[in-house]
Sequence to fold (112 residues):
Amino acid sequence: MMKKYDYKNRITAEEFYKYKERLQSDKDFTLIPVEKSAWEEHKTSLLVAIFLIPVALVGLLLIKNAIEEMLDYQLYVVEKKKYFQLMKYFILKSETYEEFVKEFYEGVVEMV
Fold:
């Protein structure tokens, strides 16, 4: 929000005469108070923002990568579980190792 100068601040008669004398005697004297520049006033906020934006972006990328890795790992766990469930099924179904190899490794696993 923009700061507004409070024009209701009145000067006293003593300040008036002091200013009048000084203005008449010193051409370089100004009533305008020396203020900080906009950069000096806001440089801390701007520098913090400039620093935090890349940090926030890196944070978002890390979160995105973590979510992708979690999803990939979950798919891996599901596929692994399915593989061993099928293996269990074919071990129980098969009479011999050769039958198991033929049906499981040469049939099911090649399809996956």
